[in-house]
Structures are given as structure tokens and as C-alpha cells.
């Protein structure tokens, strides 16, 4: 039991770190922010906060939307909201990933970022502790519309892009690459690992609360 919990948490946090790494790769490719980072930058400018904290703020709002759509919240959802933003700030403030000044390197960094994000999505959703805010939205809309992950994810990314641009986020050729490729990359990774996101059985926070409550009730008896 303990080994399973540890392996699950390692998978979750490795996925969250990879997601942040993929985002910073895209940012530092210097040819345009990813759609969600365009949105995050717009929020960052509006509220005068860091990109990481903007990501956390956006995640909180999306969690509320997911809840209204009937998507249950897991520990992975909360950790996603908090730690991806914090990992992003650590990577950016310490300049761990260099900023590209070469167009060829920039394009390579952008596509690498896309694939890293797709792999990270598979890892932390597969931990079955609840999808992250954005991916929870993807899952909820996939279930409600019966559309493919590729279509739903692309619509979400493009919507974030448009709103972010209106808020003053930076848009470049890399932004379009991210907007139209992330959904395809995620679906490709899911197929490679034969991962059906609609069949994932997450353990949610409410499940743990009920488990603790029932355990305490049995002890008191």
C-alpha cells in the first residue's frame, strides 16, 4: 500500500515538473507563448504578478468551472494548480532553460515543449488522483460532447489564445504551433501508451474524506 502511494506521488510530481518544463521550453523558444501562457501573461500584466502565480490563479478559476461541469476534484488537481506554477517560476528565475536566439533552435524547442507537455499529461492523469484544472476541463468537455481529445483540446487552446491576446499576451508563430499541435500530441501519446482518458478511475478528495470518516466511525465502535 505504502509503495503504491509513493510510486503514484512520484509519477504525479514528475508529470507536474515535466509539464512546467515543457511550458518553459515553449516560452524560452522566444517565438511566441503557448495559448495558456498568452492567457497567463495577460493575467500577469493585469494583476502585476509572476507568470507562475498567474498560472495558479487561472487554475483556481478553472477548477471552479470544472466543479460546475460535474468534474470531481482530486489531490492531483490541487497539486497541479499549485506546483506547475511554482516549478515554472523556479525554472525561469534560475534560468535553467536558456532563451533561444536562433530560429531553428527555437522551432526545435517549441516542438520539444509540445511533446514534453503531452507526455506530462499522460503521466499525471495516469496517476489517477484527479486531472489538472485544464485537463480536467478537457476531460469534462470530452465526456459531455463525445468529441475527440484532439478536437476538444484544440478548441480549449484556441479559446485561451484569443482571450490571452485580448489581455495583452504575446503571440507569435510558436503560439500557433502550440495551439494546433498540443491536442494532436496528447492524442498521439495516449495512443502510444494505449491510454483511454475516458476510462480513468480517479481517486478524489471526497473519497479520502469518506474513507477517513468511515475509519474513525469503525474505531469508535
Automatic annotation (TrEMBL):
Keyword Phosphoprotein: no
Sorted UniProt keywords: Membrane, Transmembrane, Transmembrane helix
Pfam families xref list: DUF6198
Top-level taxon of origin: Bacteria
Transmembrane as UniProt keyword: yes
PANTHER family: INTEGRAL MEMBRANE PROTEIN, INTEGRAL MEMBRANE PROTEIN-RELATED
Protein name, as recorded: Membrane protein
Annotated transmembrane regions: 12-31, 51-70, 77-97, 103-127
Organism: Clostridium folliculivorans
Amino acid at each position: 500500500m505504502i509503495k503504491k502511494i509513493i510510486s503514484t506521488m512520484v509519477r504525479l510530481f514528475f508529470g507536474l515538473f515535466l509539464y512546467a518544463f515543457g511550458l518553459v521550453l515553449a516560452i524560452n523558444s522566444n517565438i511566441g507563448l503557448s495559448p495558456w501562457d498568452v492567457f497567463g501573461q495577460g493575467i500577469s500584466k493585469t494583476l502585476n504578478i509572476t507568470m507562475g502565480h498567474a498560472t495558479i490563479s487561472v487554475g483556481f478559476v478553472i477548477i471552479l468551472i470544472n466543479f460546475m461541469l460535474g468534474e470531481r476534484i482530486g489531490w492531483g488537481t490541487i497539486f497541479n494548480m499549485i506546483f506547475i506554477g511554482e516549478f515554472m517560476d523556479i525554472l525561469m528565475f534560475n534560468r535553467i532553460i536558456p532563451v533561444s536566439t536562433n530560429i531553428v533552435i527555437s522551432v526545435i524547442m517549441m516542438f520539444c515543449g509540445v511533446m514534453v507537455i503531452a507526455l506530462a499529461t499522460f503521466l499525471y492523469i495516469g496517476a489517477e488522483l484527479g486531472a489538472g484544472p485544464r485537463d480536467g476541463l478537457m476531460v469534462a468537455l470530452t465526456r459531455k460532447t463525445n468529441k475527440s481529445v484532439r478536437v476538444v483540446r484544440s478548441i480549449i487552446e484556441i479559446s485561451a489564445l484569443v482571450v490571452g491576446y485580448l489581455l495583452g499576451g504575446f503571440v507569435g508563430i510558436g503560439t500557433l504551433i502550440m495551439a494546433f499541435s498540443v491536442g494532436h500530441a496528447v492524442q498521439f501519446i495516449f495512443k502510444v501508451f494505449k491510454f483511454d482518458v475516458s476510462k480513468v478511475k480517479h481517486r478524489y478528495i471526497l473519497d479520502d474524506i469518506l474513507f477517513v470518516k468511515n475509519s474513525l466511525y469503525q474505531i469508535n465502535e
